[in-house]
Design a protein that fits this description.
Blueprint: E1 2-4, H1 8-15, E2 22-29, E3 32-37, H2 39-50, E4 56-58, H3 71-82, H4 126-134
Antiparallel strand pairs: 1-3, 1-4, 2-3
Helix pairs in contact: 3-4
Organism: Streptomyces microflavus (Streptomyces lipmanii)
GO biological process, one term: fatty acid biosynthetic process
GO molecular function: fatty acid synthase activity
C-alpha cells in the first residue's frame, strides 16, 4: 500500500490495465490517495507519479488491504463472521474523564461514553459489514 499526494483523478488513469492487480484503497483527503495491490505494480505507479512531482509514502502493512488480492478470502471471511455472536459493546469507547466519569455501582448502564448498539434490522448484517471493510471501496 502506498500513499500518494495526488487526487484520485490523477491516479486512476495509471491503474488502467492493472485492475486485477491494484486498486485505490482509500481517498483520505481530496489530495491524498492510497493505492493497494501487487507490490511491483504499486511501486511502478508510485515511481511514475513521484517523477512528476507527487510525494509518495510506502505504508507498513502486512497485506494489500482493500485491493483485488483480498477477493480470495471474502467468502470464507463472510462465512466465519456469520458464525460470530454479536452483542452491544460493553467497553467504553473513551476513557473516563471529568466530563465522562466512570460508572458507579448505581449506574443504569455498565459503560460510559458512546457505544455501538445492536445492528438495526434495516442495516447490513455484521458479516456483510466486515466483508465491506475487507473489500476494495466501491466509489469507482
Amino acid at each position: 500500500m502506498i500513499a500518494i499526494q495526488a487526487p484520485e483523478h490523477t491516479i486512476r488513469p495509471h491503474l488502467t490495465g492493472h485492475e486485477t492487480h491494484i486498486d485505490i484503497a482509500a481517498i483520505n483527503t481530496p489530495n491524498s490517495t492510497v493505492i493497494s495491490g501487487t507490490t511491483h505494480t504499486a511501486q511502478t505507479i508510485a515511481t511514475t507519479l513521484r517523477n512528476t512531482g507527487h510525494k509518495t509514502h510506502t505504508l507498513n502493512t502486512s497485506h494489500a488491504f482493500h485491493s483485488p488480492h483480498m477477493d480470495g478470502m471474502l467468502n470464507q471471511f463472510t462465512t466465519t463472521t456469520k458464525n460470530i455472536t454479536h452483542h452491544p459493546a460493553t467497553t467504553p469507547s473513551s476513557p473516563p474523564s471529568p466530563e465522562n466519569p466512570p460508572p458507579t455501582k448505581n449506574s443504569k448502564t455498565p459503560t460510559t461514553g458512546p457505544t455501538r448498539s445492536a445492528t438495526p434490522s434495516d442495516s447490513p448484517t455484521p458479516s456483510k459489514l466486515w466483508r465491506q471493510k475487507a473489500s476494495p471501496p466501491t466509489w469507482k
